[in-house]
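Reviewers of the previous submission asked for a worked example of the structure-prediction workflow described in the proposal, so we include one complete record here. The input consisted solely of the amino acid sequence. No template or homolog information was supplied to the procedure at any stage.
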Amino acid sequence: MGAGLGVTAVVAALRAPSGAIQCFEGNKQCVRAAQQTAARNKVTNISFHHAIVAKAIFVYGSPHDVGTVIPASQIPKCNVLQLDCEGAEVEILRELTIQPRAILVETHGIYGAPANLVASLLMERGYVVSDRGLAEPRLGELHAQQDVRVLLGRSH
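From that input alone, the workflow returned the following structure tokens.
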């Protein structure tokens, strides 16, 4: 969730050549950029959906380019779920009906999804949680103030 420029999706696709990667991105320009990233890397096992999961709290770009909103209950089954949803992570974790083997979450305290709440929701779902640090260390002070961290939840 939150494809951005598609870098993480391409890395995932390259690491799982027999798997299928599905990306949901609310910004139309980011969808196009992610598709270009996949094409440049000759990756074909990725599908991109111009959609937001749960709700739009903060979506980059023009409000006119925002994709449709789908409920978290419609997230397809997967082994690994990566969430970078600018605050919607809390609602997604509360409404999620699938149980992936691992969930990687970028927290956004500034948008109502602080690391401690996200960690507790992952633990309630039965995951062992580890804090992987600031999302972008080069933005250290800003990300520390805004509580933008990466948490990994792994099933037992």
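The beta strands are 21-25, 46-53, 68-70, 80-83, 102-106, 127-134, 149-155. We consider this example representative of the routine output the project will generate in years two and three.
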